[in-house]
Amino acid sequence: KINDLDSLMQKLQKQIQVLDKELEEPALYEKSPDKAVSKAKDRAAALAQLNEAEEQWLEFSAEYEDGMAG
Fold it and tell me: How far apart are CA 25 and CA 7, in angstroms?
């Protein structure tokens, strides 16, 4: 599970980086404002998924450490 979450978090971080670069382009807002809104929503969704995955990762890590200590 932890390895799956690591992979998911890396994928989401890359997705957010790509969207950030696209959203930095002023031309996007001038030429395709609808696309800019869509990309901003996609970024928000990816960030929410990343935050959730990080929380799960912390929970699994804590459980693992508790298991190793006990």
Answer: 28
**Residue type for position 22:** E
Phi-psi region of 25 (alpha: psi -120 to 50; beta: other; left: phi over 0): beta
Terminal-to-terminal C-alpha distance of the chain:
20
Q: Determine the Cα–Cα distance for residues 42 and 6; give it in Å rounded to an integer.
A: 20
Indicate if the pLDDT at residue 70 is higher than 80.
no
pTM: 0.87
Which residue do the tokens 């006990």 mark? 70
Task: Indicate the Cα dihedral angle 70, 4, 55, 64, nearest 10°.
Answer: 0
Q: Which helix (H) or strand (E) holds 67?
A: helix 33-69
